[in-house]
Give the backbone structure.
Amino acid sequence: MEDKTRFERGLEKLAEVDGAVGDQVIQNLKEIAPDLGRFIIEFAFGDIYTRPTLDLKQRECITLASLATQGGTENQLRVHINGALNVGLTPEEIAETFIQCVPYVGFPRVLNAVAVAKEVFKKRELIS
Amino acid sequence: MEDKTRFERGLEKLAEVDGAVGDQVIQNLKEIAPDLGRFIIEFAFGDIYTRPTLDLKQRECITLASLATQGGTENQLRVHINGALNVGLTPEEIAETFIQCVPYVGFPRVLNAVAVAKEVFKKRELIS
Amino acid sequence: MEDKTRFERGLEKLAEVDGAVGDQVIQNLKEIAPDLGRFIIEFAFGDIYTRPTLDLKQRECITLASLATQGGTENQLRVHINGALNVGLTPEEIAETFIQCVPYVGFPRVLNAVAVAKEVFKKRELIS
Amino acid sequence: MEDKTRFERGLEKLAEVDGAVGDQVIQNLKEIAPDLGRFIIEFAFGDIYTRPTLDLKQRECITLASLATQGGTENQLRVHINGALNVGLTPEEIAETFIQCVPYVGFPRVLNAVAVAKEVFKKRELIS
Amino acid sequence: MEDKTRFERGLEKLAEVDGAVGDQVIQNLKEIAPDLGRFIIEFAFGDIYTRPTLDLKQRECITLASLATQGGTENQLRVHINGALNVGLTPEEIAETFIQCVPYVGFPRVLNAVAVAKEVFKKRELIS
Amino acid sequence: MEDKTRFERGLEKLAEVDGAVGDQVIQNLKEIAPDLGRFIIEFAFGDIYTRPTLDLKQRECITLASLATQGGTENQLRVHINGALNVGLTPEEIAETFIQCVPYVGFPRVLNAVAVAKEVFKKRELIS
């Protein structure tokens, strides 16, 4: 029952943050590693995103910084740049989050993240 | 003159964020690569930290997420966990910033960052 | 109750794999981020290590390869090289796991991991 | 003669593990860096894969963990997920190898590796 | 005025090294993060590339080694392999730069970099 | 016999580049993974460092850029900063090699590498 609660709590949070895109990530895992989708919902969204102390805007901002720093995370950046917009971060704040990373990770990682942001912003008609 | 302004602006911001610890980083570079210290002041602090859109608490939070994600940045985490406290982030917010990174980078990177935070918090007598 | 089961299941598995060293990791988190310790137990050990398909020797072997590849994980390698020995991997198999990584990550990451292994093996008097 | 032996031994092992896909990697290097192809054969396959202590299933499992952890290695994962199947690992064991990495590298690296596995398994008609 | 000089100096150096490709990178940032383009010109090219002690061939060689080592930098490698050719490095020297990285980063990172080099060399008709 | 030649060729090159420090690395591996030391000599030094197209100064310069970029390679940087000095790079060229990496990897990785350089230069009394 508690696990169902973690799952439900996570599913709710996933819908709030990532919307249909998040659901797609979970669907894509069905055939090959369904438990992996369950862990994302239960652990990442049910356990972590629901915690107090930081709000969803702060959590998405941290997530973007972490993904941009790692590199090779274009698919995850796409989901979470959408998520960041969904929870109320502005395009300017998202771009600025990546710019703040330049002194710490250099230009290439930041240019890659900004290229994904540009694509997402265009699709959502936030820039022309 | 403009460069002097970038340098001065950066020096001021460095003092505001990192205090004496930041100054020590610059001093340590004097004998071997003095221009590197100047670039940190002019570019990282003069150009980036002084930008609008995000405040210093948000910038330090992003910096902590980026440094924790990279790994092998214990010295820089020490400086910026102090910086984060200096600009008003609480120990709870700092720990939570690292916890938010767990789903994206796993436990080892986060445990390493939290170990540095523990050491800094103890030194500043924020935990016993 | 289910969560208590995940926690208990994880605690049991942690004791089986890492022994007292694993417990120390959790204790060290008590003052600063106790939930982080709980997540390691519940998620890493309760959810993941208890899964079927791969046995504990295979899981530790994968963990060692992942930690060696990441770099900057000396503390975690220390715990898991001990863990690998505890679940029955031989010193030769552990060293060979790292050697298999050379073509994929190069010598530095492997040399760093082997240095930790040497230290652990000496402490357990497996090499002179 | 000894080098010819290393090369021959490596070529044989490459064929055993990676089949035609491995050969393609070597062919692609012919025009630009033929010695690089030779080093892969002689060193990675001739020197390392032929060693005792670990069998080919264990070696591919370690390789998958290392490649997934590094990130940005989609092409190499494609080759070695095929290789893992060729030497007898099941699709379940391959997926589980990646799942075991979640606590150590987080979800993004694992999701990227699982996406490549899904593509390979589909192509080999192991999943529908 | 001094800043204009840094910008002008950087623009000149960017044109010398990267030609039209570099300009394209800056143009792509116009809508989303124009200051990021300015920082690349002022800091990377105006401040760093114009320094004495190392010439442009040495600087591009270092840049290629750094980008190949990082991974996930295919777009930046494309720009800088072109840049390396523009400042006088031969295709052989570029390939050899990547080969020298093998012992330190392993084959996957190097194979990815060499694949970009092959594509650039073909486009410039340096290999058939 | 050919392998003996690779080994001998590598040993000679290792002595030329790294001197006694390189030998220490190999000695340290004796008890735990002697073949790993042999591979460093045969492959890294016998096969790679002896190749034409780039000279030893260029090779060490590339190695330093790669190690600094990776991070968590302080021990290897110590060996190769010594190696770089041994083959004729000046302290200024070594520092400049790291500075050239700043735009690509950010300040933390470069500060860590420069700290090792400072320590090596002091020990060799090249700076006061």
Observations:
- Chain B touches chain E at residues 1-3, 6, 35, 39, 43, 47, 51 (CB under 8 Å).
- The mean pLDDT of chain B is 94.
- The first helix of chain B runs from residue 2 to 29.
